[in-house]
Design brief:
- The complex is a heterodimer of chains A (517) and B (294).
- Chain A contains 13 helices and 21 strands.
- Chain A is of the alpha+beta class.
- Chain A has a 6-stranded mixed beta sheet with strand order 13-12-18-17-11-14.
- In chain A, strand 12 (221-226) and strand 13 (232-236) form a beta hairpin.
- The model of chain A has no long low-confidence stretch (mean pLDDT 88).
- In chain B, helix 5 (119-147) runs parallel beside helix 7 (180-210) and helix 8 (216-248) runs antiparallel to helix 9 (254-281).
- Chain B is an alpha+beta fold.
- The radius of gyration of chain B is 24 Å and the shape is elongated.
- The interface between A and B is large, with 73 and 71 residues.
- Strand 20 (336-344) of chain A pairs antiparallel with strand 5 (109-117) of chain B.
Chain lengths: 517, 294
């Protein structure tokens, strides 16, 4: 056991040097270094904003029910089924049919090929659950129907969020899904998320509709407020154009009125519709509605066939820029609520790094001084092992480009304190064995063998805690569990390869020494 | 050889009363949950104006109609921590506070840190924190049960339980804040205390195999003594590292390192005075582990 082959010694040295080299690449100029991997700093160390957004799917569900109701109407008509009392009530679609149609309707809705009620074969469920009480049918969104709606609105929303964040041009944003109705946005280096928050807080649902005085329009009417919150106007529910028809939007200075406006360009379909509406509607007011509020309602003076137009409405340059950005990026499928926000300024991040480094340095120094006084030569070995351990730990974190957080630094310091444990267990055991075994080499070997189970059990218990923390913890705390877990592996490696090699060399040279340790 | 077991009845009594007191504190006084678990807003503010004090900030925030809030110094002379209980996560809540603050104390401050946690998130974080601690206890129980016998498993878990409850009791007594990093600390305490107990148990098991004629009372005492220097050295090095974090690691890590320091001290104590007496009470003998071996 004492003997280490040359090959093994070389391998251990190479592995160690490799990780020292990788760890050191963190401190080199990225331009000149061979390895470009770096430890990522968490938001709490480099500063930045963390936003957790929740999608409010209520409106999407209602929209879905309304659309389905319309489809059911035409579907039943085309199948020549007489129905009455079709309505939406408490998130349910309710309708009645005559007795002899019940079976037919059931078949139409519960067939696996049903056009009206799609069947998800992966979930073995339809989009809607159908309940039949006598001749009354009640349709509710099934569990999986709801999940479908949520995931699809999440998919759309994350795309829009990404576009909006990208447009603002922050440094390497990180945008991720969380669950099926949340989106996590991490914005490194951003110390005031005010603008992003207000951009993400808007659905940006844009519609162009006529202002009307006629209560009995075919599509219905609604009264909407202007953005100033004072004036109101009655607007037709018929949508001439919406945000999807927009190709581009830019803020602009109108040279005639000296006013900031948002100019927009429509796609082909949009341009055609806009041309038609503006030619038939000369003299009418066209309301530009954003998220249920009228931005402005200009009077149409001329046919606009080019597909270019302007939105005016008391904009500052900033608000025009933001509106143009929102229009370019498209509408969110549902409103987003910010349910968690954490922002750290860059100077606090730097302070935390400095404090962490000082604490690490002092902690390390205290431990090596203590170990040296306690074990002398063996203490020196334990300290070399500890230093290598630290390089291995930083090296592995670098190799995997792990994210280092403030609790993560605490994890490294804690590893320094706890890593000597394995060596202490071994040294104490060797000491005991020496007291009843004259042969130093045998004492050394039994010391290593007998301490093994305790070391493994002790490290596994800490590892269990770290793994659970990794899966249950969030954000910075996760960083702690990563360093703690990696620290356990590097400790075992450095203790069983580095320390063992060094102690082996020492014991081999001092075979005859009376008091080995 | 130190006769540790001579005092175990006395120490068990002390531990038991500490646990009772801690449980009572937890029920009557409760824990001081931070923004992470209670929801609300936390602002770390640095001022460049020497005249700004806790009192003047308290006055300024008092005029903002924010409901319950709390202002305190945070480490540095010019750093303050403001906690607002109102759960307002609307997009411009922070902006309004900044604006009002500018008009009342001038433009001489920066927000170094802002945390805004909605009620839904905070209750989820609390739940997952509790689940994490419970899960880790269960996992340890299971692991020790596989590696040793159920008597050892019970002893180890009671020891860890003792450490966690008393640490939380002290946090309650001194009104120290419980946040996400404290949960991390508690989990690490669980790991550390278990680690410490396992090392002694490992020796107990080894000695049980070796000596059939020594009673468990004597045997645990021998095992504790044999592993004593390791127990002390590891506790000392871990404490040295933790004290370095506590003193130099910055304000944010203070609570975390404090919880860990207490945990290490209790963990070391409980391995000796909780985990081992349980083996005596359960009359563990060579038979207990021989059964396992065959």
């Amino acid at each position: 056991m004492l003997y280490f082959s040359k090959l093994r010694i070389t391998l251990v040295c190479l592995v160690t040097l490799f990780f020292i080299y990788i760890a050191s690449s963190n401190f080199q100029d990225p331009e000149n270094s061979f390895i470009t991997k770096r430890i990522n700093l968490g938001l709490d160390l480099q500063g930045g904003s963390y936003l957790l957004l929740e999608i409010d799917n209520g409106p999407v569900e209602i929209q879905k029910l309304q659309n389905t109701t319309t489809t059911i109407k035409s579907f039943l008509k085309s199948n020549k089924i007489n129905f009455y009392d079709l309505r939406i009530q408490d998130n349910k679609i309710i309708f009645s049919v005559s007795k002899n149609d019940i079976k037919v309707v059931e078949n139409l809705f519960l067939d696996k090929e049903s056009e009206i009620n799609p069947y998800y074969s992966q979930y073995k469920s339809h989009q809607f659950d159908l309940l039949n009480q006598n001749d009354v049918f009640i349709l509710t969104l099934s569990k999986y129907g709801l999940i479908e709606i949520k995931t699809s609105s999440q998919d759309q929303a994350i795309e829009i969020v990404r576009r909006r964040v990208d447009e603002v041009g922050t440094n390497e944003p990180n945008i991720l899904k969380r669950g099926n109705n949340r989106i996590l946005v991490e914005l490194p280096g951003l110390d005031d998320p005010m603008r992003i928050k207000s951009l993400l807080g808007k659905t940006a649902n844009l519609t162009f509709r006529f202002v009307t005085k006629d209560n009995n329009e075919t599509f219905g009417v609604e009264t909407l407020q202007f953005e100033d919150g004072v004036n109101e106007a009655m607007v037709s529910k018929r949508i001439i154009l919406n945000g999807e028809n927009l190709l581009d939007a830019q803020p602009q200075m109108n040279s005639q009125t000296n006013e900031t406006v948002v100019s927009f360009t429509l796609d082909r379909v949009g341009a055609k519709r806009f041309g038609k509406a503006t030619s038939t509607g000369i003299g009418k007011q066209l309301a530009i509605v954003l998220d249920g509020k009228i931005v402005s309602a200009p009077v149409i003076r001329d046919t606009i066939a080019s597909g270019n137009g302007q939105i005016s409405g008391n904009f500052t340059f900033q608000s025009a820029t933001d509106l143009a950005l929102l229009l370019r990026s498209g509408a969110l499928p549902a409103p987003l609520n910010i349910i968690e926000e954490r922002t750290v300024g860059p100077d606090l991040g730097q302070d935390s790094i400095n404090a962490g480094v000082v604490a690490l340095f002092i902690g390390f120094l205290l431990v090596i001084i203590f170990m040296f006084f306690k074990y002398k030569i063996f203490g020196l070995i334990a300290n070399i092992t500890l230093l290598v351990n630290l390089f291995l730990l930083v090296g592995i974190l670098t190799l995997f480009e792990a994210t280092l957080t403030l609790p993560g630094i605490a994890g490294i310091i804690l590893t320094v304190g706890m890593a000597v444990d394995a060596n202490v267990l071994i040294f104490e055991r060797i000491k005991e064995e020496c007291s009843n075994e004259k042969n130093n080499i045998i004492a050394f070997d039994t010391g290593y063998i007998k301490s093994k189970t305790a070391i493994i059990d002790a490290n596994i218990t800490t590892l269990i805690a770290a793994i659970i923390l990794f899966f249950m913890g969030s954000g910075p705390v996760k960083g702690f569990s990563v360093t703690l877990a990696v620290g356990i592996f590097t400790t075992l490696f450095s203790v069983y390869f580095i320390a063992r090699m060094l102690t082996g060399l020492y014991v081999a040279r001092n075979k005859e020494k009376d008091k080995l340790i | 050889m130190i006769n540790f077991n001579k005092f175990y009845k006395l120490f068990n009594l002390i531990s038991l009363s500490l646990i009772m007191m801690s449980i009572m504190l937890l029920f009557v006084k409760g824990l001081n949950y931070g923004v992470d678990f209670k929801g609300g807003t936390l602002i770390e503010l640095r001022s460049n104006d020497k005249k700004i004090s806790v009192t003047s900030l308290r006055y300024s925030f008092g005029n903002m109609n924010l409901g319950d809030f709390n202002v305190k110094k945070f480490g540095n002379e010019n750093d303050f921590l403001i906690k607002i209980e109102k759960k307002d996560t609307s997009a411009n809540a922070i902006e309004i506070i900044k604006k009002e603050l500018r008009s009342s104390i001038g433009d001489t401050f920066t927000f170094r840190r802002v945390e805004n946690v909605g009620p839904k998130v905070s209750s989820e974080l609390l739940r997952s924190g509790i689940i994490a601690i419970a899960l880790s206890l269960a996992a340890m129980l299971f692991y020790i049960w596989i590696r040793f016998e159920w008597q050892f498993s019970l002893g180890a878990i009671l020891a860890v339980f003792h450490d966690v409850i008393i640490t939380l009791g002290i946090f309650s007594l001194f009104n120290l804040e419980i946040n996400l990093s404290i949960v991390a600390a508690v989990l690490t305490i669980v790991g550390y205390s278990m680690n410490d107990t396992v090392v002694i148990y490992d020796r107990v098991r080894e000695n049980l195999r070796k000596f059939s004629d020594i009673k468990i009372y004597e045997l645990t005492n021998i095992s504790i003594n044999e592993t004593l220097s390791r127990t002390i050295i590891t506790s000392v090095t871990t404490l040295l590292a933790l004290i370095a974090i506590y003193l130099f690691g910055g304000e944010i890590l203070k609570g975390f390192s404090l919880a860990m320091i207490m945990g290490v001290i209790f963990g070391t104590y409980s391995s000796i005075y909780i985990a081992n007496p349980i083996l005596i009470k359960l009359k563990v003998s060579q038979k207990t582990i021989i059964k396992e071996d065959t």
